């Protein structure tokens, strides 16, 4: 330890060693010491010198420190010192380097140590990158740090987290690649968020921020490691928007995971995490106290919402997120902040931008936004309140841009909203007692503020975007310019202000409005050309050689004139397509016209506006182009150039070709309609044919049935005719037929009677058998009752058996008692204390023992006899139980047979009923046949007459026998 005392500045008489020498000795001690305590003290000394002598420690000690991390894993203290030392030489943070100076010279003295020169400072800044490159040359070093993070000891885990963060800051891409391929690398870092020690968890957030920058693969892994759930839980625990710096770190990490990562955005939406964002924006009524941290947190939260609904995302994903935000009430909460008082200006501006993108292109959200009212007296629509801010020159510039963006998003693909805005300008809907959106737009369009002119013109142009109906409706708008003068149209007023030579920003806004207005609207083109001053003004503007600032106005004038040519319907004789092109050729020149038209796309602000829909400008003077207008220019530039260069002959040919194509299309359309009509007729005829076929089949079936019935009647008639033809010649034909029929009927009746008699006999036999079986069953039941009586005898036997068992148990107890007494006598006999006592007691004990043994023998024999009786009784009981079981089984079998016989009887009864039904049917048939014979005029005897005749015949035969 004396060595370290000298190194660390102990009092010594000799010259003090320089810093480099000291560090060299410490490194030698780290490398050569065999005792852990010596190595630990040396590393501690290096840590204390690492900030002041950063270069020397990093150059000489890095390899030794890495070796310590590999070999001394069992000692957490030395590991912590080594990690802290590595962090001090790698970290470039200003707060860590405020004491750092330039590398020390060999003499050990610093020159201008308090104020390092720029070269020394730059060299110190480069040290972190230099040592980081040296450390990450071997990926195993990074893997070693990831392994050390599994140590729960605070003195190891915390410096390890800080060291990895510093490495990621200095060499992010290479570190990301190493961690990505390291087994469980990202998972180990995610475990830091679950650490109960807040300082480790918070530094883990900073580490994950650096890890997830611009790396989609790592972002996906972190997201699927349940990062969203953990981060949202931390935000809630820390107080949401009222939380501290930890909430800010969580939000920054969420932005890293979601921005430009469609997979994570979809995972965030599918996991229902959008719903958990709603409580963030529940701002209280008292908005007077907004801390700087709360403003920062809420600003990041709004950015997070915008990431999910950004216009650069896929349309399907954006629409799905917009729907979720409306359903969970997030949009309603944002609108509440929008209309609240006391909200800071930057938060209000960002909230407007956020609401803009939540409603952009979503009809449901746009309709809801149109219904929002400001809490004023009387209530005013939120759109009107926002437009009042947009045309107010005293409002901040960024706020006015945000309102313009919100209005544009409200009208984007919203023809219903466009119609409502234009309707506020029409004479029939103007309300003098209230301020409408149309009045505010007109007021801003013609105000003295050029920025208000531009914003109002662009907003009105969005109300006409891709909506031919509203373009035509806006032509009806009339404006009262001054007292005593007739009103002028809105279109005319725009061209009047344009010709008066106002500011460039105002003219650019008006030209964009006019181009959007008359584009693809021939009626608006005709209205514009109807003013005799418009075309000369445009040609004059285009043909002049003006300054750099006016070039954009010239290009827009050329675009406006080109639209008048391309969408001209030649309804005005003085301004047909051909005459306008001739005018351009004479006054301007075709090449000069095309060149001026190209000034628009060559402007430096054009490409900036074309990048994204949101109007973002560094200053009001640079606010010249609208995003949607850049799309219009891109679509029209080529077609206008072609239209200007085409000759009249080419146009005629094109018109002829167009007419031919239109005629062809008309012919094709006519044929298509004819084919549709014929198809409809064919389908109708097919249905009629199908119904007729069905009717035909039904009629054929009916005819077949009728023919069959006729044939049956013929057959019956032929049979009757044959039967009637076989009668005796002595009798008349009618009597012979009747007797034959009666004979047949008598035979059938006799046969049926015999069958019924046979069934009756069978029924009687079955009933007899059933009675026998019932008697047998009764006998068995009586035997079973006897068996139960025997069971009562068994019960008596069981009672006797129980009595014997109790007697045996009492005798066994007595035997046990006697055995105990015998043991006691033996013990006393063996332990006798004197001869006299022994002799007297011995004789007594011997006699008593003999008596006990005799009694025991008799008791044993009695017990054996009783056991034999119990065994015989048990056997008798088992035999009786077996007989009882056999009787029960016999009864069950007989009951089964009885049920079967009852079933057979029921079937016999059913068969008898069927026979009776057949007899009844037969009687009915006989009766009908008799009736038919009677109808035919034949004499038919009834059954009573036949019975009387049979009786008479029998009496006659008996008389003959007597004779």
Summary of the model, kept short:
The chain is mainly α.
If you compute it from the alpha carbons, what radius of gyration comes out, rounded to the nearest whole angstrom?
Answer: 58 Å
Shape: flat
Instruction: Please estimate the helix content.
Output: over 70%
Strand order of the largest sheet: 1-2
Strand content is: under 5%
Poorly predicted parts: 1-14, 95-117, 727-742, 787-794, 832-845
Largest sheet: 2 strands, antiparallel
Determine the N-to-C terminus distance.
170 Å
Q: If classified by CATH, what would the architecture of the domain at 1-7 and 17-104 and 118-211 be?
A: Alpha Horseshoe
Mean pLDDT: 80
Give the number of helices.
Answer: 41
Would you report the number of β strands? 4
Write down the CATH class of the domain at 1-7 and 17-104 and 118-211: Mainly Alpha
Q: In CATH, what is the homologous superfamily of the domain at 1-7 and 17-104 and 118-211?
A: Leucine-rich Repeat Variant
The SS-based structural class is mainly alpha
The name CATH uses for the topology of the domain at 1-7 and 17-104 and 118-211 is: Leucine-rich Repeat Variant
């Amino acid at each position: 330890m004396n060595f370290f005392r000298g190194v660390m500045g102990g009092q010594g008489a000799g010259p003090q060693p320089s810093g480099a020498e000291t560090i060299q000795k410490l490194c030698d001690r780290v490398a050569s010491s065999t005792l852990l305590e010596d190595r630990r003290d040396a590393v501690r000394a290096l840590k204390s010198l690492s900030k002041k002598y950063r270069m020397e420690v990093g150059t000489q000690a890095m390899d030794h420190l890495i070796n310590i991390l590999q070999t001394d894993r069992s000692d957490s203290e030395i590991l912590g010192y080594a990690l802290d030392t590595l962090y001090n030489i790698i970290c470039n943070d200003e707060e860590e380097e405020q004491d750092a100076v330039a590398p020390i010279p060999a003499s050990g003295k610093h020159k201008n140590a308090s104020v390092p020169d720029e070269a020394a400072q730059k060299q110190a800044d480069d040290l972190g990158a230099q040592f980081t490159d040296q450390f990450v040359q071997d990926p195993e070093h990074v893997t070693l740090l990831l392994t050390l993070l599994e140590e729960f000891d605070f003195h190891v885990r915390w410096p390890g987290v800080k060291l990895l963060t510093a490495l990621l800051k200095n060499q992010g891409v290479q570190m990301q690649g190493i961690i990505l391929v390291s087994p469980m690398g990202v998972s180990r870092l995610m475990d830091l968020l679950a650490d109960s020690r807040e300082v480790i968890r918070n530094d883990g957030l900073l580490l994950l921020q650096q890890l997830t920058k611009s790396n989609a693969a790592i972002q996906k892994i972190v997201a699927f490691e349940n990062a969203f759930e953990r981060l949202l839980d931390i935000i809630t625990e820390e107080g949401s928007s009222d939380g501290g710096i930890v909430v800010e770190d969580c939000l920054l990490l969420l932005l890293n995971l979601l921005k430009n990562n469609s997979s994570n955005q979809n995972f965030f939406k599918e996991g229902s995490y959008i719903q958990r964002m709603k409580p963030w924006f529940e701002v209280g009524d008292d908005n007077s106290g907004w801390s700087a941290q709360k403003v920062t947190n809420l600003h990041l939260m709004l950015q997070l919402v915008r990431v999910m609904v950004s216009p650069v995302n896929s349309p399907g994903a954006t629409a799905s997120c917009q729907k979720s935000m409306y359903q969970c009430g997030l949009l309603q909460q944002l609108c509440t902040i929008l209309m609240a008082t006391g909200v800071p200006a930057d938060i209000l501006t960002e909230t407007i931008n956020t609401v803009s993108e939540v409603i952009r292109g979503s009809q449901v959200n746009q309709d809801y936004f149109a219904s929002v009212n400001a809490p004023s007296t009387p209530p005013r629509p939120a759109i009107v309140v926002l437009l009042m801010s947009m045309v107010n020159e005293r409002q901040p510039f960024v706020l006015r841009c945000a309102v313009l963006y919100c209005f544009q998003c409200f009208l984007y693909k919203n023809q219903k909203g466009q119609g409502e805005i234009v309707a506020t300008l029409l004479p029939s809907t103007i309300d003098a007692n209230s301020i409408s959106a149309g009045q505010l737009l007109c007021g801003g369009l013609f105000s003295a503020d050029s920025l208000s002119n531009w914003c109002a013109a662009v907003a009105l142009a969005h109300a006409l975007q891709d909506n031919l109906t509203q373009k035509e409706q806006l032509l009806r708008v009339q404006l009262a310019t001054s007292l005593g003068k007739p009103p002028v149209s809105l279109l005319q007023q725009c061209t009047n202000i344009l010709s008066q030579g106002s500011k460039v920003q105002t003219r650019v806004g008006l030209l964009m409005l006019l181009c959007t207005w008359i584009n693809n609207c021939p009626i608006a083109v005709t209205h514009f050309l109807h003013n005799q001053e418009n075309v000369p003004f445009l040609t004059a503007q285009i043909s002049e050689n003006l300054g750099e600032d006016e070039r954009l106005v010239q290009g827009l004038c050329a675009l406006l004139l080109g639209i008048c040519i391309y969408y001209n319907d030649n309804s005005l004789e003085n301004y047909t397509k051909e005459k306008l092109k001739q005018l351009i050729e004479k006054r301007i020149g075709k090449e000069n016209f095309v060149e001026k038209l190209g000034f628009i796309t060559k402007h430096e602000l054009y490409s900036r506006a074309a990048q994204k829909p949101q109007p973002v400008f560094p200053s009001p003077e640079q606010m010249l182009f609208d995003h949607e207008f850049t799309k219009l220019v891109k679509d029209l530039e080529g077609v206008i150039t072609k239209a200007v260069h085409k000759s009249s002959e080419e146009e005629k040919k094109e018109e002829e070709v167009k007419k031919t194509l239109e005629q062809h299309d008309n012919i094709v359309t006519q044929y298509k309609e004819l084919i549709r009509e014929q198809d409809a007729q064919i389908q109708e005829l097919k249905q009629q044919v199908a119904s007729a076929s069905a009717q035909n089949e039904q009629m054929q079936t009916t005819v077949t049935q009728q023919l069959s019935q006729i044939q049956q009647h013929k057959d019956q008639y032929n049979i009757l005719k044959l039967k009637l033809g076989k009668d005796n010649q002595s009798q008349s034909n009618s009597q012979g037929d009747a007797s034959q029929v009666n004979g047949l009927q008598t035979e059938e009746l006799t046969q049926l009677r015999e069958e019924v008699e046979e069934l009756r006999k069978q029924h009687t036999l079955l009933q007899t058998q059933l009675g026998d079986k019932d008697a047998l069953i009764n006998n068995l039941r009586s035997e079973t009752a006897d068996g139960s009586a025997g069971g009562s005898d068994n019960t008596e036997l069981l009672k006797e058996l129980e009595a014997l068992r109790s007697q045996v148990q009492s005798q066994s107890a007595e035997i046990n008692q006697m055995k105990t007494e015998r043991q006691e006598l033996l013990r006393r006999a063996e332990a006798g204390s004197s001869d006299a006592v022994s002799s007297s007691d011995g004789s007594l004990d011997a006699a008593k023992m003999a008596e006990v043994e005799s009694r025991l023998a008799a008791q044993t024999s009695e017990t054996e006899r009783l056991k034999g009786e119990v065994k015989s009784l048990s056997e008798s009981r088992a035999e009786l139980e077996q007989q009882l079981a056999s009787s029960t089984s016999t009864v069950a079998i007989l009951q089964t047979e009885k049920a079967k016989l009852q079933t057979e009887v029921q079937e016999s009864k059913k068969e008898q009923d069927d026979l009776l039904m057949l007899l009844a049917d037969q009687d009915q048939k006989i009766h009908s046949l008799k009736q038919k014979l009677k109808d035919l005029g034949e004499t038919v005897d009834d059954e009573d007459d036949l019975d009387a005749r049979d009786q008479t015949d029998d009496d006659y035969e008996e008389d003959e026998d007597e004779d």
